[in-house]
């Protein structure tokens, strides 16, 4: 862009009559230019590349099938109140911990509570075993029962046991496990329920109640409760992921 500025007046001697003229100065001022517009073809190519990169980062399908939705729902663990039909609902007059977690059983899965309980404890995540080892090392100094002590006591007594737990009662729908110690007593229930109508789903509920005897028991359950909840939920999900035993295995 050029700007004309009259700087001074002068008399042109070469012009007849000595007419007055002007000195003209032209100043070049740079003008701002807008950035060039991106070509449409290049823009479309960049968009397509970004879509490909996004699909590589998220390879799963955006549309969930009915089978995937059903599988995901059967992997979901729900927290519930203690089932009133459970034998441990009124095991103690007072409790320091009480919780219940439920998961749906697929069609064709066994409804034998003892078989399902053995399956759950046999397929726990490896980190749970390491957590139990750390727990045993901690409580041994207080004279409490460790997993190794419970297992050996069961072999000596010959009483019915499921893993490290003593079996207190069994029925067609529920098995009750537990143990008594000087600091607390606890009961663990594996209950199969549901199918009040044909085609209705069945559920497996794992419930726990704890009754503490002293301050040591209350301190212990206060520290262990968050890990207990993680262990229960992880155990149910692991069993569902592997696949519940079928009715033919009962």
Verbal overview:
This protein has about 250 residues and is an alpha+beta fold. The termini are far apart. Strands 3-4-9-8-7-6-5 form a seven-stranded antiparallel β-sheet. Helices cover about 35% and strands about 25% of the residues. It has helices at about 40-55, 65-75, 115-120, 125-140, 145-155, 215-240; strands spanning about 1-10, 20-30, 80, 95-105, 160, 165-170, 175-180, 185-195, 200-210. It is globular. The model is unreliable at about 5-10 (pLDDT under 50). A hairpin with a 3-residue loop joins strand 6 (about 165-170) and strand 7 (about 175-180).
Overall mean pLDDT stands at 80
* Lateral arrangement of strands in the main beta sheet: 3-4-9-8-7-6-5
Low-confidence stretches: 7-11
Helix-strand topology string? EEHHEEHHHEEEEEH
| Main sheet properties | 7 strands, antiparallel
Total number of helical segments?
6
* Computed Rg: 39 Å
User: Helix coverage percent of residues?
Assistant: 25-40%
Give the CA-CA distance, first to last residue: 93 Å
Oligomeric organization of the protein chains: single chain
Q: Strand tally, please? A: 9
Strand content: 25-35%
Which class do the helix and strand fractions yield?
Answer: alpha+beta
User: Which word captures the global form?
Assistant: globular
């Amino acid at each position: 862009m050029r700007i004309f500025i009259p700087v001074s007046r002068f008399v042109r001697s070469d012009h007849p009559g000595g007419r007055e003229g002007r000195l003209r100065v032209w100043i070049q001022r740079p003008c701002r230019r807008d950035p060039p517009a991106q070509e449409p073809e290049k823009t479309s190519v960049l968009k397509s590349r970004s879509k490909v990169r996004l699909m590589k980062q998220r390879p799963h399908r955006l549309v969930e099938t009915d089978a995937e939705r059903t599988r995901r729902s059967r992997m979901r663990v729900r927290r519930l109140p203690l089932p009133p039909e459970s034998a441990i609902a009124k095991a103690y007059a007072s409790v320091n911990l009480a919780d219940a977690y439920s998961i749906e059983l697929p069609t064709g899965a066994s409804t034998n509570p003892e078989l399902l309980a053995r399956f759950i404890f046999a397929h726990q995540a490896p980190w749970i075993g390491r957590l139990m080892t750390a727990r045993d090392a901690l409580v041994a100094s207080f004279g409490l029962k460790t997993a190794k002590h419970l297992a050996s006591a069961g072999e000596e007594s010959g009483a019915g046991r499921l893993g490290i737990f003593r079996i207190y009662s069994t029925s067609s729908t529920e098995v009750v496990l537990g143990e008594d110690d000087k600091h607390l007593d606890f009961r663990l229930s594996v209950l199969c329920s549901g199918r009040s109508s044909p085609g209705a789903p069945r559920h497996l509920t794992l419930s726990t109640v704890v009754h503490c005897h002293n301050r040591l028991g209350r301190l212990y359950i206060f520290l262990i409760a968050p890990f207990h909840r993680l262990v229960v939920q992880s155990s149910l999900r692991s069993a569902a992921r592997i696949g519940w035993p079928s009715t033919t295995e009962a």
